[in-house]
């Protein structure tokens, strides 16, 4: 049944956007791409019945990106929650290096990341990458770096989710606006 539903979802998006999803995402701003990634992560968590203090904190921090006027502050917060950092096995990866986490929080988050499946870790890192990859550089013609991460999120979710977020919801924040960043988006818009 799950496979049949995925086939219907795939056909829907193929009919809606043809074979060129990438062209569609090129027109969506970095904020819109990030919103798409966060919505995909939320859907993955719901479909897999994963909910705890860390998923809620992570989702809330990710949504801050789309409405923030201080992205360096956001980057500091999100870097403290990034699986890639928390799970780093380097001996000098210690709790004191994480400004927004106490030692017990660091250990709790690390335990959570060690217990969840690799698919979730992969998706979290991809979504974070959408927000951080072009944070201090030029976006170019269509922010190739964020586009790459967005496409990876899309491909992952097309395979793993029963229902993808409606891509049309992200069209209103255009890459042609605000040097590729588009309009700021409050998460309430997507609820």
Molecular structure report:
This protein is mainly α. The chain has one domain (2-190). Helix content is 59%, strand content 0%. It contains nine helices and no strands. Helix 8 (118-132) runs antiparallel to helix 9 (144-160). The model has no long low-confidence stretch (mean pLDDT 89).
Tally of helical segments:
9
Helix amount, in percent?
Answer: 55-70%
Outline type: globular
Distance between the termini: 27 Å
Estimated structural class: mainly alpha
The profile of the biggest β sheet is:
none
Number of strands: 0
Radius of gyration: 17 Å
Estimate what percentage of residues fall within beta strands. Answer: under 5%
Kindly give the count of domains.
1
pLDDT < 50 stretches: none
pLDDT averaged over residues: 89
Helices and strands, in order, run as HHHHHHHHH
């Amino acid at each position: 049944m799950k496979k049949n539903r995925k086939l219907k979802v795939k056909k829907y998006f193929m009919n809606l956007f043809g074979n060129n999803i990438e062209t569609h995402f090129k027109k969506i701003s970095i904020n819109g791409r990030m919103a798409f990634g966060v919505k995909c992560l939320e859907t993955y968590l719901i479909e897999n019945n994963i909910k705890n203090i860390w998923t809620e904190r992570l989702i809330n921090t990710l949504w801050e990106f789309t409405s923030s006027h201080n992205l360096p502050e956001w980057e500091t917060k999100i870097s403290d929650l990034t699986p890639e950092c928390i799970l780093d096995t380097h001996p000098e990866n210690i709790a004191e290096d994480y400004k927004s986490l106490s030692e017990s929080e660091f250990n709790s988050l690390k335990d959570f990341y060690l217990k969840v499946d690799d698919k979730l870790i992969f998706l979290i890192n991809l979504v974070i990458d959408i927000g951080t990859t072009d944070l201090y550089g030029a976006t170019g013609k269509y922010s190739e770096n964020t586009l790459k991460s967005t496409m990876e999120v899309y491909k992952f979710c097309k395979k793993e989710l029963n229902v993808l977020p409606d891509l049309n919801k992200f069209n209103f924040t255009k890459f042609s606006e605000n040097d590729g960043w588009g309009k700021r988006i409050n998460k309430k818009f997507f609820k």
